Amino acid sequence: MNILVRVPNWIGDAVMCLPALTDLRNHHPHGKVTVLARPVIGDLLRGQPGVDEVMMYFHQGEHKGLFGLWHLIHLVKKKQFDCAVLFQNAFEAALIAWMAGIPSRIGYATDGRRWLLSEAVLRPDRATLHHTVYYQELVKGIVQSYGKDRSPQLFLSPGVKNACARQFPEVFFPSEDLIIGMNPGSVYGSAKRWIPERFAEVGDRLVERLTKELTGTPFVRCVLIGGKGEEALAQDIAGRMRHEPIVLSGRTTIQELMGVLTRCSVLVTNDTGPMHVAQALGIPVAAIFGSTDPSTTSPHGQSGGVVTASVRCAPCLLRACPIDHRCMTQVSVEQVVDVALSQIRMSKNYGNEGRIKGHAG
Question: So what's the pLDDT on residue 185?
C-alpha cells in the first residue's frame, strides 16, 4: 500500500495528529507512508517513526497559484499512490488527491468536499474532543478499529542534537546547568499571548527559586524561544529581566527548536505549536490558556501543567480580545511559577534529594 497523508498546516495540529499516524502505520505495517506538508511541518516530521518520505508543498514558492498547484498535482500523480488520508480538512487537500487520480481518498466530509472523497467519514464534533482523538477518529473510520489513546511523541536523532549543541553552546554547556524555556509569542493572534512583563517576572522568580532549592546545579538560566517576527517581543522581555536570558527567538529552525527544547527542564508557554512539540519530546510544560480551550488543545497527558483564569467569556476562540483580555490579565505570576515548579518536581529528572539528575532528550 502506497499511502499519501496530507497533514495539517499548523505545528500544534501536526503534532496532535501523530497518534493517528501511528494508528495508520500499525494497520499498514508494510506500507509506504509519504506525508505531504508545508516546509516547516515537513521538517518537523522528517525522520519520525512511521514516516517513510516527506513531500514538500511550497505554498509560497513553486507551488503558489494555479500553475504551481497544477505542478504539485503532477508530482503527486507520478508517485502513483493507492490511498490518500486527509488529516487536513481543506477542500484543496481533497482536490489535489482527486486530480492526481488517487483511487482511495479518505477524509472528513467537511468544507464542501464530500464529492471529491471516495470514503467520506462523518466528522465528529471537534469542539468536544481533544484534537489527538479527533484525528484518531478519522483513522477509526477507515480501519474500523481504534488505537489506544496515546500521547504524541517526537524523536530527535543524536546527530541533530549534537549539531544543535554546536550551534547553541550557550544552551547546552555546561551540561550541568538547568535551563528554563520560555515561549511568550503566538502566531495565531494576540488573544493567546500572556503579558510580556509577567513572562519576565516568572523567569526571574524561577531562576531565584531554583537556585536556592536545587543543590549541585552550578547555574540556572532562561532561554527565550519564538518564531520569525517575534524577535522584538523576546528582546522586550529580556530587557525587563534581572537575570539575563539567552534569546533565540527567530534564530532556530524547527529541528533546532526541538534540540533546544530537549535541553529544557520546563517550558513556560502560551497555547502554541512549541507547547505541543515540548510535550511530544517529553518536556514538562506550564501552559497558559486564555481564549482557547484546554479540553481540546492542552498538552496531551500534562493536564497539571495548564494554567487558566476562571472567567465567563473564556474560551472564546477569538484571535484578538474585543474587551479587556481578562482571561490573561487574571492569570498571576504566582500561579505560573507554582505550576512550573510543580512540573519540574514531578518530572523523572528531579531527584528526591532536591537536585536535577539529568535532562530530557
Answer: 95
Omega cis (within 30) before 103: no
* Cα distances (angstroms) measured from residue 304 to each of 285, 318, 332, 341: 9, 24, 16, 11
* Residues in the chain, pLDDT under 50: 351-355, 357-361
Task: Give the separation between CA 140 and CA 144, rounded to whole angstroms.
Answer: 5
Q: What is the pTM (predicted TM-score) of this model?
A: 0.94
Q: Using alpha carbons only, what angle is made at residue 62 by residues 56 and 68, rounded to the nearest 5 degrees?
A: 100
Strand partners, 183: 269
Sheet containing 285-288: give its strands across.
Answer: 246-247, 220-224, 178-183, 264-270, 285-288, 306-307
CA distance 37 to 148: 25
Burial of 352 (0-12, 13-18, 19+ CB in 10 A): exposed
Residue 114, C-beta contacts closer than 8 angstroms, at least 6 positions apart: 120
Amino acid at 20: A
Q: How far apart are CA 341 and CA 354, in angstroms?
A: 12
Element (H, E) at 4: strand 2-6
**Domain(s) of CATH 3.40.50.2000: residues in the chain:** 2-143, 164-346
CATH of 2-143, one of 3.40.50.2000, 3.30.1330.100, 3.30.2010.10, 3.40.630.30: 3.40.50.2000
Between β-strands 178-183 and 246-247, what pairing exists: parallel, antiparallel or unpaired? unpaired
Q: What are phi and psi of 306, to 5 degrees?
A: -95, 135
In order of 117, 174, 268, 306, the CA distances from 271 in angstroms are 32, 30, 10, 9
Domain 164-346: homologous superfamily in CATH: Glycogen Phosphorylase B; (3.40.50.2000)
Q: What is the pLDDT of residues 110-129, one digit of tens each?
A: 989 999 999 999 999 888 89
The contacts found for 151-154 with CB under 8 angstroms, 24 or more apart, are: 151/19, 151/279, 151/280, 151/300, 151/301, 152/15, 152/16, 152/18, 152/19, 152/276, 152/279, 152/280, 152/300, 153/18, 153/280, 153/282, 154/15, 154/18, 154/44, 154/48, 154/258, 154/277, 154/280, 154/281
